[in-house]
Amino acid sequence: MDLKQVAKDTTKVLSSYLTYQAVKVVISQLSETNPPLAIWLSNFSSTAKIQDGEAYIQELMGVEQPLAFRIMTVREHLAQEVTEFLPEMTIAAIAQANMKHRCQYLEKVTQFNLSTESSDPDAI
Length: 124
Known about the structure:
Blueprint: H1 3-33, H2 35-47, H3 53-63, H4 65-82, H5 86-119
């Protein structure tokens, strides 16, 4: 397992997600200050490569540079605010989800065994 590659891939996914969140913030802001531009950005974002944050920014840069810079600024701010809590929250969330999955599995296995035993009265 190449942990550095996992970290790079995770960073890329997180960066793209923060780009998506920044776009949502900017659209919300524009909805109050410049509704036609908010509609334009929303339409652009629905057809652009929003899953890849860097490709999205690159494409937006060629069409509407001020919006691209605004989204990059918001994305950077979100990254600074979120990454402080991210390691602890991620570890806790994964541990909690794993525990939930294990409990559900145990319940399923236990119910299966109990129902199998109760359906055969001569098994005792």
